[in-house]
Design brief:
Domain Kringle: 808-891
Helix content: 10-25%
Number of helices: 22
Domain VWFD: 382-576
CATH superfamily of the largest domain: Mog1/PsbP, alpha/beta/alpha sandwich
Biased composition (Polar residues): 1129-1146
Structural class: alpha+beta
Domain Sushi: 662-719
CATH topology of the largest domain: Protein Transport Mog1p, Chain A
Strand order of the largest sheet: 19-18-17-30-29-28-27-26
Largest sheet: 8 strands, antiparallel
Transmembrane segments: 723-746
Amino acid sequence: MFCLFWSASQNTILTNLMKAQSCENSCGASFGSCSCHPTCETLLNCCEDLKHFCLDISPHSGSLLGGTDFKLLNVEFAKNDTLTCRFKSEIKTQGYVDADGAGHCISPLLFESGWIPFEVSTDGVNYNRYGRWLSVHHSKLSLEYKLLLVNGTQWQYYGTPGVGGVLLMVWNSSLIKADRVNIELWGYDEFGEPYSDQWRAEWKYLYSVGRNVTNNGAFSFIPKPSEMPLAGVAYGQHEGQSKQNVNALWSGDHALAYHLEEAFRKDSSAWALEKCLKWDQEEKLMPSFLPEIIDCPCTLAQARADTGRFHVLTSDSIGGSTPDRGHDWGSPPYEKPPRVPGFSHWKYDVITFYYCCLWSDNCDYYFTHRPSSDCRTYQPPKAASVLGDPHFITFDSSTYTFNGKGEYVLLHSLEHQLTVQGRTETMKSENGSVVMATRLSSVAMQEKDSDIIEVRLADQPDHLQVLQNQQELSFSEQNWLDLKGVFVFSGVPQNVTVMFPSGAGIEVRGRGGVMTLTVLLPKEFQGQTQGLLGTMNDNPEDDLITSNGTLVGGDSSPQDIFAFGAGWAITNITSLFTYDSTYLLNEYNFSPKHDPTFFPQFSVTEDASDPLLNPTLKMCVGDGGQFCKYDTLSMRSLELGNNTLHAVRTHTATVQDLQPVVSCGWLQPPKHGQKEGTVYLEGAKVRFSCNHGYRLYGSQERMCQEDGHWSGEDTHCVSDNTLAIVLGSVVCVVTLVVMVIAIVIYTRKQKRFWKTTIKKYPAGLGTIVRSENELFEPELLKWCLMGSAALAEAVLLLHLNSKREIIKCYTVNGEDYRGHQNQTSLHGGKPCLFWNETFQHPYNTVKYSNGEGGLGAHNFCRNPDGDVQPWCYIADQEDGTYWKFCEIPSCQMPGILGCFKDNGDPSPLSKSYQTSQKLTVQSCISLCRNQRYKLAGMEAGYACFCGNELDHHLHGDAPSLECSHGCFGDQQQPCGGDGHVIVFDTKVGGCGGNYTAESAVIYSPDFPDKYAPGRVCYWTIQVPGASVILFNFTFFNIMDQADMVELLDGYTNQVMARFDGRNPPHEIVNVSADFVILYFYSDRTNEAQGFSMVYQAYRASSSRSAGNTETNEDSDSKQAISTIGPRFGSNTERSNTSKNDKSSQIPYLITSGPKKSENERPGLSWVVGDAEELPFDDDQFDVYTIAFGIRNVTHIEQLIPVLGEVIAGDWKSYQYLVESIRKFPDQETFKEMIEDTGFFRVQYTNLSGGIVALHSGFKL
């Protein structure tokens, strides 16, 4: 036992000690005798000069644009003092001393929001006074602190048709400490290469609207157009003073329509379109930000409940529901683009909307880069709560009561470095006596190195106090605070919401004298939590795990659960709490973190004579009834029990609101029709109707089904007067007897949109080639070919391996597709529009006149913007032409095994499973490859599966369009779809491997992702018996000369070819060897897309010996050899191989007539005469022979019918051949067509003066 005696003499000694310590240059410090820490005021141990050097200010917040005059409280200055205020130790503004001796500072222009430290000096040298200023997003300021633009619509659209007149602005004149002011226009812009160190933001003075204007709170003017464009600045703000960092008021940011040049007023739509197109080009050069953005919730209930990731706004605006490159509120660390609060958002997402949508009608450009996503991949969080005397509801919905007294770990996630701690204290009954029960009184939290946020019960009933790093936060001026690594919102004193970058959200509410806590965690926390709120893994059986890893059963006794909770007590070292009172120091800081002397009332007795029992039993029923009854009877309070019951039901409602829902996505109305219904969730129905004069085809009503797909078929409205389009057959009778004509078409594995059949007429009539057009076939391919035996003999060249599939794509998203499919699907697809007729849309031949992205005067599917697969525009909408993906069977990157349904039980790949918000194709492949699985599958953009065998016999193949969902980590890569898995061979993107097959495709490491720095990889290609191996780099994107690809002789390691960023491969590499090593190296700084390479090995024929000098006097053969024999630009041979002058010739290329070729190439069969006798199927030709007939003959219109009458007795049929001959392309055009199908080194030889031409080409 001890006594504390306080005397006047002792008080004098302590006062002298406190005077000896000073807070000058020591704010936040604690001394033995006194303290300059914020907690000193409640601990009553502040140093005497605390307020003199550790400043309080009013107001404590203002616009980040600066100009706010704030007063330094509780300190006096000499009237002749010159104050300098320095923010962030670098930005200086001039302060002043008013007539009462109070100091004032002016806030500066800042490019960030949040608390900004500042210092004050009276001599411009020594800065010894400290404070902090809250920089606020300009739109969050109260209207009284802004310069208001009256009639905002007039300001925003000034200069567009029908908008003009006088513009008016008003302001609170008392906020400007001057009799006269200047009105100036400032514009915002960003400079430097995007996402580089040189990228910077800048506010620029444009001009003065008014100078030396009376400060009476209003100003009007009639704007004049700018005489010249001002560096692209098209939005900005007005300032009420003449220079920066002085006392000023700012307007809201707005589009400067009234400021723009005369060209805008003459034709605002054309002016805006030009700006829109320029932005479209700039946006294409910038990296995609879409993978960073998660889908929005599907319902308002989900949005309200998911407070860790979404903040519900009470207003909406035109152009909402689109993703933004720059978040309106900015993003830490702020300051640099595109993270500047408000203004980066305006530059990239708002003013561009004006250009493309509001000032012109070109929204397609905008929505190409800002597509509105649906909610089909939204994943709701899990919720856990602490309520009442404290009762716990875990993330997996286990419930228990732990009412110890102390400080405990509520939640800890090691991977996310998130900690939430709770403090409990004893409660008092309504008569003031202490009862054996506790309540949650404070919650402290931190994620990584963020500010520590503590929320605790305040002295005022049900009010909450919020501390940031042990210093109280005020919400009197701003209810939303952007702090270091955390965001805090408090609209009313009873509620506080805390949001962390990981998506974790903490809701704290005060009600009935008790604090209720709700924690929401996204799916990324699955299996990564511990503490009193349990393990979040969908298994309620393992929620009660002690801090040492011991499992406590859910049916354990209250005493065992009490011991379990006590084990989660924190330590002084790990504590996040503030101890700023004698009570807190004694009860929690200097005492055990779990009070071993306190034992609660583990159960309550239901005494029939208790007058409180009957109303308790009536009130405490249903969900939460047990907790309600316990709290009511233990605390002897119906109010407390009712509050507990309400808290439980609120939690239950939150969990229910967060249940996943099925969405089928937005349905568009048909062109020339309407749609009834705006709900797209499971069970919703949408009805369609057509305008007068149009007939409805397809489904009149469609319903969203449980599998996330709409029932029925696409709906169209077709005019009653539309003439039927008859797509017939063109029959050409060809009288050739010796001529054989080969037409190269798509591989048989592709269901072609046009097909060729060859039939035989009665003897003597020759060959018929019929092109049966099933749907909009390419115009040039309609026409038949003809020739004459009297003019020339053409040669049919067959590929020795002609039955293999032709690959048309080597990139994962088909960006390299150059095929000729011109409809969205081969079965019932929609026809594509021609790229040279889509000028109103972002991609057309005017903007891409050099063939970029494969665009041209055709309507073939392409992927010019790097989407997940090729697509095209279609004419199928009311308000313009839209686009759809093309399902192209032949456009499947080697290594993709297909798209498969995932019906579960089992999944197509069921050996391993993982989810990631940053999933890419290669990250999944690498995961599976590292676990030694052969196959990797991606589903819904975020899920990765591994396995060795496909259970597709249980699930079946699915259309490729079902797997076109972009990966969360890279939206330009396909990562499956809802209920559909896209499967890859894990060899794709591997670093090295051994190949012995005659042909294969090898990708750079990490493909289709960018290869990583510091990669060194080897691949061996060894094909026994091969005499030559061809290497074709179908895709090559290496950063610079520091990264390289080499081909080495497998026996000698001699470098046979080297390629890098400055020396890419332009031709096929021909290596005369059977063993080659492919080597790749990247330095430690570069990343790029890499390469895809296909090799083909060929074995030597016995007739291809070096000594074979057989000749033939066939004249046609000589001509062919001398003119079309292709030679490769890059030819390599092993040093010990004889250099034959024919070494650059492809062994299977035949350039002579039938007689000589039969001797040189045994095994080839030649067929002349009736086409019906050809012993091969379609799609087997890799080299063309084309007869151009007698196009050069004069009087062709008369000659052809006469020939038909003489030779075949059919004058009428032959008169139609004239147009066929003219329509067929000339030699050069047909050469380009061959190249478009994937052939290389295409050449042709004119025979008989150009009447016939022989084309040749190569295809791996």
